[in-house]
Amino acid sequence: MAHVKAGGVAKGNKDSVSKRLGVKIYGGQMARAGNILIRQKGSKVWAGVGASMGSDSTIFALKDGTVKFLVREGKQFVSVV
Length: 81
Known about the structure:
Blueprint: E1 22-23, E2 30-31, E3 36-39, E4 45-47, E5 51-53, E6 59-61, E7 65-72, E8 75-80
Parallel strand pairs: 4-8
Antiparallel strand pairs: 1-3, 2-7, 3-6, 5-6, 7-8
């Protein structure tokens, strides 16, 4: 009588692929126009001067410069100066 003993073990053994979210270029580093600065879900960090936010809340650089993080009125902003 042939059967597979551990057939039900692998049923719940699946995992989703990570989304690679987070800061891609840190404060003080150089960024070129079009570089992605932060990948995020929702607007945890807001775009400041020289940066813009895409439809999926990704923040990217609009011009070449140095990345700078700052907090104003309880919100965290990222700018390219």
